[in-house]
Specification:
By secondary structure, the protein is α+β, with helices and mostly antiparallel strands. It has a domain at about 70-215: Umud Fragment, subunit A. The protein has helices at about 1-25, 40-70, 190; strands at about 70-75, 90-95, 110, 125-130, 135-140, 140-145, 150, 165-170, 175, 195, 200-210, 215. Strand 11 (about 200-210) and strand 12 (about 215) form a beta hairpin. Keywords: Hydrolase, Membrane, Protease, Transmembrane, Transmembrane helix.
Length: about 220
Amino acid sequence: MDNYSDTLQEAEQASVGSRKRSKSSSIDTGKPVKPQKPSREKSGWVKEVWDWSRTLIAAVAIVLLFHFFVFNLSTVEGQSMEPTLYEKEWLFVNKYSYRFGSPQLGDVIILKDPAEGSEKKEYLVKRIVGVPGDKIEIRTGQLYRNGELVVERFTDTVIEDIDYGPFVVEKDRYFVMGDNRHARASRDSRSFGTVPETMIRGRADYILWPITKLNSL
């Protein structure tokens, strides 16, 4: 019995010693533990910024392509196209239409000012009244094309300037006038001559602003 009791006591002491060693091994060292950040947090933020930047770059590129090759917006300056167009109105200019076709009679066009040097960037808005081969003449306040009177419903007066012509429009060139037919109201083909097709930048299709004037031309 005594031997049994000694063995049990020794076992208990061994168990207590083992627990003490276990507790001592888990003692806090007192050093702060740094929280670990998710490794993907930074890379996710960078990817999101890159995605937004790529979308923005693509959008700007598309707008620029459309601006240079398809359309642009132009603002009317001056009174030479009244009563059709008034100053400060915004026009939708179709730059694509003449890539597969030629300008037509009655088109309202945007053209580079023939009176300016090549370094200038002045543009005019006028209406085509004569195409290649047409004979243009102005007499007694009326416009004649190929000997026939042209009825111009978009004007509000007879042509108050002096008579002109007759004149035959050359190949690949166009005779343009402003809709304002009052005296000295428009500088057009009567003063700077016919316009080569290469100087025509596009066709004005719509009035976009002010919204109350929204209309096709």
